[in-house]
Structures are given as structure tokens and as C-alpha cells.
Amino acid sequence: MLERVKKKAKELGFTYDLYKYLLFTFGRRGEKAFLYVKEGRVKRYKDFFVVVGREEYIVEEFFCTCKDFHFNLRGRKPCAHILAVAIADELKLYDEFDTYYVNFISIDARRGWK
Asked: What is the pTM of this model?
């Protein structure tokens, strides 16, 4: 399924036609994915991608840390974050960080720091 999305992204480029394809194929998830890429919310680190939504969601291959992926989809369909990474990766529309991803906020919370 993601290969089809990547192929369409490559074929159509980052255009209104890609937006329509995502919207009609994936509904609200496709629309959100397009907006994540458009707003520059996809980050590539050395070890995986991060998509900034309400929180920072870690995306690696066909896995995402969002609730939609875990509770509603259970890996059967891609969430908006996985779709956004597939598009951004194919079209090279992401911010690249030459480092490994570390969530300092959660580290501080585990240590009891504020």
C-alpha cells in the first residue's frame, strides 16, 4: 500500500492532484498527511522519522507511536503519520537532522525533573 503512495507521489509531485488522491483514497488521514508535509512537520533523524502533530510521533517503516495506529488500525492501514513519511521520503520534503532522536522531555519526566 505504501509503495502505491510513493509511486503516486513521484508521479504527481507535491500538487493538488496528490492531495485529491490522498483524500479520496485515505479520507481524513490522507488529508492530514498532506498537511503535515506541506507544513514541514516531517523530520528525518539518523535512526527514524518523527512527525510533529499534537505530539512528536516516531515513525519507522510501517510502525507509528500514535494512538490511531495502535488502537484503531492495528497495522492494517497506515495512519496519517506513516503516509506523511512515505510522501516526504519519496519527494525529499523533510527536515534532516544529523543526529539520533532523543526525547529529552520524557527523560526528564522519568527522573522527576520539571
From this structure: 0.85
